[in-house]
Design a protein that fits this description.
The chain has one domain (about 5-180): Aminopeptidase (3-Layer(aba) Sandwich), CATH 3.40.630. It is built from 6 helices and 9 strands, in the order E-E-H-H-H-E-E-H-E-H-E-E-H-E-E. The chain has helices at about 25-35, 35-40, 50-55, 90-95, 120-135, 155-160, and strands at about 5-10, 15-20, 65-70, 75-85, 105-115, 140-145, 150, 165-170, 175-180. Strands 1, 2, 3, 4, 5, 6, 7, 8 and 9 form a 9-stranded mixed β-sheet that branches.
Length: about 190
């Protein structure tokens, strides 16, 4: 199990990356409610109310949350979800690309970063932190949860720089890309 990690952002602010825990729920609801409408539109793996979040993480739980928080305030500034396997409603589309995803070897990834904290390295560091956790668990593939909107060039470029490859394109409230990262063993 990964331990919390303290890092500095590109603008030299101290933040902590760690797994979500039950004590974070109220602060997570506050974080989600303060996202811009555009960010809320792009990040929707669950509803934003406390009851829905508690249910989302209830037993049996295949979802793991991760947060980044400001070290001195414990204010959440980024939140990501990892789901073991892939989303069932994505299965047909993933198979249409020639994939036969093994639920035991892949995970779905849903990231978000507060608007004021984007482009200073928070998302990159959080992804690196999560990938270490997934490698320790023996996972080999990370699929973007619901894809990424093709017009969101900043996000598409971020994923490509991180090693995600475009699998294909689909329509859902506009054009979207399915993207996947294949993790390589450290040499």
């Amino acid at each position: 199990m990964s331990q919390p990690v303290s890092i500095k952002t590109k603008d030299n602010q101290s933040v902590i990356l760690r797994k979500l825990n039950a004590n974070d729920i109220d602060r997570l609801v506050e974080y989600l409610h303060h996202l811009s409408d555009e960010t809320k539109h792009r990040f929707a793996p669950h509803h934003y109310d406390k009851k829905s979040i508690v249910e989302f993480y209830s037993w049996p739980n295949e979802n793991t949350g991760f947060v980044t928080e400001i070290a001195e305030h414990a204010k959440i500034i980024a939140y990501s979800i990892i789901k073991c396997g892939y989303l069932q409603h994505d299965k047909h589309r993933l198979e249409s690309y020639g994939l036969k995803p093994d639920e035991m070897k892949c995970a779905s990834f849903a990231p978000s970063v507060a608007d004021d904290w984007q482009s200073i390295g928070v998302g990159k560091k959080m992804l690196e932190y999560i990938l270490k956790e997934l490698k320790m668990a023996g996972l080999q593939h990370v699929i973007l949860w619901g894809g990424v909107q093709s017009k969101n060039e900043q996000a598409v470029n971020f994923y490509r720089k991180a090693g995600f490859k475009t699998l294909g394109e689909f329509e859902y409230f506009g054009s979207n890309y399915d993207m996947m990262l294949t993790m390589k063993d450290e040499e």
